[in-house]
Design goal:
11 helices, mainly alpha, about 200 residues
């Protein structure tokens, strides 16, 4: 028998409502145009309650983006397993991240961050740097593969960037800008990217 998830307290429920409302508000009006008053209205809480949880709009924006970015870390994190093929393990990471990039709320927040590069570059840059750090889970896997002499990589950070670059070219950027959707060719794209990556780095 599995334990039931703990019920959220009233304060926790309000925090969840505020974060949900903030995603909508930032999506519609951007960071600069977002209003804490409207966020309170969307969340059906008082403005004072919003500030009790988040002392400023900057903190709320940072929390909103960070909580979604953390899902990238969960998707990209995998302990290297010498008993499984390199292909199988990279497939797991790629499929999980592709699924993440299909989620509307993830894409909505990413679009807000991209828009803020024009209106508030420093705020957006900080948010994207945090996203890049969350993708570091792949670096840990690569380091494990190198330690087990399955891969030969001189610069793991560069190799990780190359992997994500090939992957996002089909799984993330087209969705972000409402361009061509490659979901119907997901497996073929993942297979081809992994084949190219391992052709470069397999020991």
């Amino acid at each position: 028998m599995t334990d039931k998830p703990a019920k959220l307290t009233n304060s926790q429920q309000k925090r969840v409502a505020i974060l949900s409302a903030s995603r909508e508000e930032f999506m519609v009006n951007g960071f600069v145009g977002a209003s804490m008053d409207r966020i309170a209205q969307r969340a059906n809480v008082s403005k004072r309650t919003v500030y009790n949880h988040f002392p400023s709009k900057e903190v709320l924006f940072d929390t909103t983006t960070s909580e979604l970015w953390s899902r990238t870390k969960e998707a990209a994190t995998l302990a290297f397993n010498p008993d499984l093929s390199l292909e199988e393990q990279l497939q797991q990471i790629a499929r999980r991240c592709w699924t993440l990039y299909q989620q509307p709320e993830f894409l909505d927040v990413a679009r807000v961050v991209m828009a803020e590069f024009i209106r508030s570059p420093s705020q957006a840059t900080e948010a994207m740097e945090k996203l890049a750090k969350q993708e570091g889970g792949l670096e840990a896997w690569l380091a494990g593969a190198v330690a087990h002499k399955a891969l030969k990589i001189e610069d793991i950070a560069i190799a990780s960037t190359q992997f994500w670059g090939m992957f996002k070219a089909f799984a993330f950027w087209p969705k972000l800008f409402h361009m061509k959707n490659h979901d119907d060719h997901q497996q073929a794209i993942i297979d081809a990217n992994i084949k190219m990556f391992l052709a470069m780095y397999r020991a």
